[in-house]
Amino acid sequence: MATLNEKKTCSQRMENFQRFLWNPDTGQLMGRTLINWVWISLYYVAFYVVMTGLFSLAIYSLMRTLNPYTPDYQDQLKSPGVTLRPDVYGEKGLEIYYNISQQSSWDGYIATLQNFLSGKERAVVCKQDMTV
User: Fold this and answer.
1) How far is residue 72's CA from residue 66's CA, in Å, rounded to a whole number?
2) Listed residue (32, 59, 57) closest to 43, CA to CA
3) Rounded CA separation 39/121 (Å)
């Protein structure tokens, strides 16, 4: 064998590596005996069992605090439901533009609003609960 100061050849390095993997003189596999490998394996199995138990306990406690029948986040106001109506303006889309000096530019909007409000009651309730 080469000493520490000498440069090792490739065959010497391979021989040392093979002896590291399996040493037939001492019965060691990668520098450890069979009983050492058993203890290391048991330690890691126990470690991962404990870690799995802690993770499961955390998930269980989280799931116990959540109610499946109520939403997690709620706004202060209730949802208004559907807020968009079908396209009643045709080619114009939802853009509202008009010329105040030309009544014909906003006549269509007035007709649409009157049509929409025709099904509503004519009574308007004021703050003092008076019907106008």
Assistant:
1) 8
2) 32
3) 84
Per residue in 31-88, pLDDT (tens digit) is: 888 899 999 999 999 999 999 999 999 999 999 988 888 877 776 766 666 566 656 6
Give the number of residues written for the chain.
132
53 with 46: CB under 8 angstroms?
Answer: no
**Mean predicted lDDT score pLDDT of the chain:** 80
Q: What is the C-alpha separation between 1 and 12, in angstroms, rounded?
A: 8
Cβ–Cβ contacts within 10 Å for residue 12, how many? 13
Query: First and final CA of the chain: distance in angstroms?
Result: 111
* pLDDT value of position 59: 96
The token pair at 114 is 């009157």
Q: How far apart are CA 58 and CA 63, in angstroms?
A: 9
Distance between CA atoms of 26 and 20, rounded to whole angstroms? 11
CA distance 62 to 93: 48
